[in-house]
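note to self — DONT lose this again. spent like an hour looking for the file last time. sequence + predicted structure for the chain T wanted, 506 res
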Amino acid sequence: MEKNANLFAHFQSHFPDDLSTCLLVTDNGQTVTYDQAVEASAQIANSLLDLGALTGDRVTVQVEKSVEALYLYLGCLRAGLVYHPLNTAYTTSELEYFLTNAEPTIIICKSESQEIIKSISVSGSVKAILTLDADGTGTLVDLSQDANTTAQIAQRCGTDMAALLYSSGTTGRPKGIMLSHDNLRSNAEILVNAWGFSSSDRLLHMLPIYHVHGLFVGISCVLMSGASMSWHRSYNDDIAVTAMSKCTVMMGVPTYYTRLLNNHRFSPDCCQTMRLFISGSAPLLTETFHQFQARCGHTILERYGMSETNMNTSNPLNGERKPGTVGRPLPGVLLKIVDEGGHEVLTNDVGDLQVKGPNVFPGYWRMPEKTSEDFTSDGFFITGDKATVDGDGYVSIVGRSKDLIICGGLNVYPKEVEMVIDDIPEVKESAIIGAPDPDFGEVVIAVVVIEDNCSAHNDFLEKKVISFCKTQLANFKIPKRIEVVQSLPRNAMGKVQKNLLRERFK
């Protein structure tokens, strides 16, 4: 039989020989061993299959971070099911699209969301809706606790889908990103080597696990090296300072590091066991890079990835880490920066970044036309990012041609917010831009043109826009500021010149 390409099988081959070894320690002091994770994930795998899920079916998951949520992810992998995580902040209208498009067989949500999920999951594909709460309780756990603690690892090909993530573009509806077992395995193996992970490492894990960073980067590096985690439900700089004394690696978004710098307890003494701080999901300010280095003596390692590709580049573990850059391409990743004609640009010139490699997703879920549009004829993925590469091969991301806003490491796609605001009767049109913020990196700003016959006061309009957005959008997408203008600046082709708006309202 052909070797099983199931990602769980690869994880398991790197588990410690002694499965009683610690896998993670929770923020309330609970220790979880590798053996417990293996048995609990087997119980969940068996339970999902008993409910009628078949190999390749989607399992939609919208739950808070917990140990049991980790078991669920591993259980889906070993059962050969496609893991479909959703941000816990998504609203009913957002969920309706994801559930309709993904057509999951099983949905797992928080208890408080169950009735909402039931009201919108009209597809005949759904065979069960289960609950899982932040405290590790719920019908999923009730169902699985008596299941068999051993389970076969489903035979999967490397090209089979392991996970389905959604990412909006600047126009239209969110796109389903199909990530294969080989995509996730190859990237994890490369990162373990690139960042020097070993069984003696303990990762400070404070990231959410509905996101590539916390789920596929953080957890995969641990499981592929037999390491352990200090496992926390969310980020807290005070707790991070305390937990660091028993950890060796931290992964975070830039906001984590700016908040550490604002914590008076953060000092070199906290970092005595730490060997590496990694930053990603949003640009790290050069100022933060230097302040962190001066404060604790550690140089943050910045890297660059996307939902569609996982990690593409990284500053080196050993060697110069250049501020303002995301390092060189990782082994196996081909990268080029091209002009509008598709020709590679000169060193230090700005162009469109394209990538190719085993880490790059095969395409969008049920959107072959969009897949063709976003790949070149020679197989490079068009990232939509503007970048430069210097004489040493270090890449710098200098802009986003798709106007993506990254708020606290989470992606906000302007068109999605604009469509909501434009539905407000008093609003003629809107433009969503990002403005620099010392804490979140960027925050969302709405530039609004009101209808000619509207006499609403600006303060009233601002409150109405924000209030309406709160009913339609996740909290990180809600504008922090509303700017009312007479008209939006446009070029000769009628396209809104958001660069001018960003400069005006920065």
